[in-house]
């Protein structure tokens, strides 16, 4: 039998800390390996799998669209592309009325950075400590972690990374500041929910200085945190919102949604993407958004997330190795007091897939359709591996 793990190791870029499992099938909140072993999937394609693996409505939409039209240049009009544009503008906060479609989170951020410079005629972008915005040179320039940035310098000039603190932001802003970029809940660096209060002050400050406020909701968007967008928890409406991950129900798609006046500062030819607005991706995204709305997945994430956070709190009380639990909706973390590689592998062995941030933070981005029973199993597996690893 072909050893596909070996093939990947041999032929694919060695850039991921792999778990030793070969996944070949998924359904809902579960995936299966090549030997037929079942896992509860709290990796969820890195937060992509909001409606679960292979949701029947998404599968159907992709199938039907693939028989009708698979590609259509942006210089022609297309039915599903228009429909997705309207749908996205109808669910994003009021005032965000125009969309640029791309294929990933980092592209959604690149578009926002270019928009900020074009719209304001200024150059500087201020981003936050613990923020993550992607791996392309622009998005990387706004990303906090030095290990991600350092080997690739020089990056794009004009980026400053500051503490999420009004005094510090005021000190850093200059006449040449175009935009302030933030993640409402900082995901990649370990799930840090937002501090209270700062965002309404930040909004007022940006307005008074003609600075654009850009929310990177690539990971937090589409119900993940218990509201359709995490900005709704903060009572703030940004000028530009970056979206991707959950949007396509597993199909790659990114979107930058902005105030019309901001998006209209691009002239024809100043931005674009060959694959952006692809009809298959649009059809997948329309079906996904319909599922999210029809099944009230944001409400479900709020309910289940609160329950799971309570269970995590009990684990933190019970086991000395767990430092703390935190999160919002179904975007959660358990922080350990020491490197947790063994714990992650033990959980994997017992049929639970989890993400990690850094060396000691375990991260959970399960599908929002995950069942109560699957969450109970998740907790009991965590309980076992904590007991096993508690010295
Ligand atoms: C994942 C992520 C990105 C990058 O998305 P890609 O699709 O991997 O390019 C950007 N911003 C945030 C907040 C993310 O979580």
Q: What does this entry look like structurally?
A:
With 391 residues, the chain is an alpha/beta fold. Helix content is 40%, strand content 18%. The chain is built from 15 helices and 15 strands. It has helices spanning 4-11, 44-47, 56-68, 79-91, 105-120, 137-141, 146-149, 166-172, 198-209, 231-234, 260-263, 279-294, 297-318, 341-349, 372-389; strands at residues 23-27, 30-33, 38-41, 98-102, 124-128, 159-162, 177-182, 212-216, 240-243, 254-258, 322-328, 331-336, 352-353, 355-357, 361-364. The chain is globular, with a radius of gyration of 21 Å. The chain starts with a helix and ends with a helix. Bound molecules: pyridoxal-5'-phosphate. Pyridoxal-5'-phosphate (PLP) is lined by residues 104-106, 109, 132-134, 183, 187-188, 216, 218-219, 244-245.
Give the topology:
Blueprint (H helix, E strand, L loop, with lengths): L3 H8 L11 E5 L2 E4 L4 E4 L2 H4 L8 H13 L10 H13 L6 E5 L2 H16 L3 E5 L8 H5 L4 H4 L9 E4 L3 H7 L4 E6 L15 H12 L2 E5 L14 H4 L5 E4 L10 E5 L1 H4 L15 H16 L2 H22 L3 E7 L2 E6 L4 H9 L2 E2 L1 E3 L3 E4 L7 H18 L2
Parallel strand pairs: 3-13, 5-6, 5-7, 7-8, 8-9
Antiparallel strand pairs: 1-2, 2-3, 4-10, 9-10, 11-12, 12-15, 14-15
Helix pairs in contact: 3-12, 4-12, 13-15, 14-15
This protein binds pyridoxal-5'-phosphate (PLP).
Short summary:
The protein has 391 residues and is an alpha/beta fold.
Biggest β-sheet, characterized? 7 strands, mixed
Helix content: 25-40%
Helical run tally: 15
H/E element order: HEEEHHHEHEHHEHEHEHEEHHHEEHEEEH
The coarse silhouette is globular
Strand tally, please? 15
Low-confidence stretches: none
Tell me the span between the first and last alpha carbons. Answer: 40 Å
What share of the residues does DSSP label as strand, in percent?
15-25%
Mean pLDDT: 97
SS-derived structural category: alpha/beta
> Which cofactors or ions or other ligands sit in this model?
pyridoxal-5'-phosphate
Q: Order of strands across the biggest sheet?
A: 4-10-9-8-7-5-6
Gyration radius, in Å = 21 Å
């Amino acid at each position: 039998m072909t050893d596909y793990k070996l093939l990947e190791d041999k032929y694919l870029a060695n850039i991921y800390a792999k778990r030793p499992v070969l996944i070949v099938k998924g359904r809902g909140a579960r995936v299966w390996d090549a030997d037929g072993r079942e896992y509860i999937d709290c990796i969820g394609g890195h937060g992509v799998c909001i409606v679960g693996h292979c949701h029947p409505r998404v599968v159907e939409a992709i199938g039907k669209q693939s028989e009708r039209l698979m590609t259509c240049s942006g210089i022609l009009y297309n039915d599903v592309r228009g429909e997705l544009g309207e749908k996205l503008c109808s669910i994003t906060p009021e005032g965000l009325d125009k969309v640029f479609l791309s294929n990933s989170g980092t592209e959604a951020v690149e578009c926002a950075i270019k928009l900020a410079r074009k719209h304001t005629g200024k150059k500087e972008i201020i981003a936050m400590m613990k923020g993550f915005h992607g791996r392309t040179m622009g998005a990387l320039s706004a990303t906090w972690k030095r290990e991600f940035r350092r080997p690739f310098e020089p990056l794009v000039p004009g980026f400053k990374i500051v503490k999420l603190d009004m005094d510090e932001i005021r000190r850093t802003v200059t006449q040449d500041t175009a935009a302030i970029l933030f993640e409402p809940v900082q995901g990649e660096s370990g799930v840090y929910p937002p501090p209270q209060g700062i965002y309404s002050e930040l909004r007022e400050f940006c307005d008074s200085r003609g600075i654009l406020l850009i929310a990177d909701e690539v990971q937090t968007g589409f119900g993940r945190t218990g509201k359709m967008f995490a900005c709704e928890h903060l009572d703030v409406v940004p000028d530009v919102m970056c979206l991707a991950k959950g949007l396509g129900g597993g199909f790659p798609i990114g979107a930058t949604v902005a105030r019309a006046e901001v998006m209209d500062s691009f002239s024809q030819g100043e931005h674009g993407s060959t694959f952006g607005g692809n009809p298959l991706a649009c059809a997948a995204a329309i079906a996904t958004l319909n599922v999210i709305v029809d099944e009230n997945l944001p409400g479900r994430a709020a309910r289940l997330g609160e329950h799971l956070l309570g269970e995590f709190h009990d684990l933190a009380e019970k086991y000395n190795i767990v430092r703390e639990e935190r999160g919002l909706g179904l975007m959660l973390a358990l922080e350990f007091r020491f490197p947790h590689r063994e714990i992650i592998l033990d959980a994997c062995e017992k049929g639970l897939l989890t993400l990690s941030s850094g060396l000691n933070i375990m991260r959970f981005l399960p599908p929002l359709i995950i069942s109560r029973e699957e969450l109970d199993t998740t907790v009991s597996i965590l309980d076992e591996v904590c007991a096993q690893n508690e010295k």
